[in-house]
Amino acid sequence: MQETKTGTNTVMYALPERIQGLIDALPLCVKNSAFEIRLREGRPLCVTGPTSFYISEDGLACSYMPSHPLIVTDSEINETVRRITGSSLYAREQELYDGYLSMKYGNRAGVSGVFSGGKLKRATSVNIRIAREVKDCAKSLVPETENGLLIVGPAGSGKTTLLRDLVRLLSNDGNRVAVIDTRGEISANGLLDTGPNTDIISGTTKAQGCEMALRTLNPQYIAFDEVGNGKELSLISESFFSGVKILTTAHASNVTEIKSRAVTKALLDGSIGKIAIIGGKVGGEITVLTPREVLCCD
Amino acid sequence: MIRFLGIALLFAASCFFGFYKANLLTLRQKKLLEICFFIETAADRIRLSHEMGQIVEECGKKAGIYKEGLIFSIAPENLENGDITLATSFLNGLGMGDTQAELKRCETYLELFKKEYIKAEAKTKEKAALYRKLGVFLGMLISIVLI
Question: How many domains does chain A contain in total?
């Protein structure tokens, strides 16, 4: 496996100067393994990787709460939102309504705060998620995609990274893949490698994108991140019966959660061929099961 | 000879001053018009969800509006203090509201700048010719006195 994007550098533009300086001065091992930078108003700055670190005022990364942690101010939160949106909050209304902001290089920021009438009135925390591109991490999953694949795992386990690499590998093998990249996380507007035979549809909902791909792109595979609502589920069934294989992801930590969550439970009816379960955190062991095996599993 | 040269220079300086003052009024009027154009364009492009940085970069140059880091500013040349205050309050926090709020902001400031433009236009009509004439006559007066 070869990790090509280790990117705190790719999110620096979004951080206020004071925080930029401190993140930049962190040890390489912390910077390179980080997959989240959490800014919460009036709370310590936190960099999350395989281990979570609090950053102290003098720039030390501590796995425990330091005596003088770097407290993020409300103006720094506002500045971060401003930097991410390019001073154009109005242009990202829909994204904010959905609770996130797409960033450059396929990164994403979750935004929470006070919403009113579907509009963000005051941001109180920003969670910057750093996209990773780990080439060949999905090599073992390629043979499992014959009838579609659902990748499940807890938040931050690398579902999107796996999906991106799976798309790249299938595309490299000459398969036509349509990616519905609603949040720009999979392809990062072409910055991340998704292979030569991949068509990217972004700026639509997943359901719209699936319909467009089915009608016009004649794909062998349709890939999208985080299957959500009923319309998407019905499109998965529709695609399955029209010979297109679906590659998607969903949040669930184990078999019990797969069977309990409405979204994943609905996919156990056979409309998806295999389910890959990522154990634990990043780089965890991947177990591939059929829906039947999941249903029989206790 | 030197005396005549000096008188000619004084005459030229006086005329130049008059024309310069008149030109300042015209330049202010033009800049206010450019600001109005910018606000109108910005409103159109906000409707299309274009980013503010891009709007300023592509359309703000003539109006002297530019982006410096996260802040939008205006070059103060050819503007009066009141114009600068108005422009600064327009540019302060620009882009950080929702679409409706930004459009409303554009509409409000467009009205205010239009009013300023109309005033500047009247002032130019009224005073530009006066400054030019004053410059020439003052030059002539100095010349006559010195001759």
Answer: 2
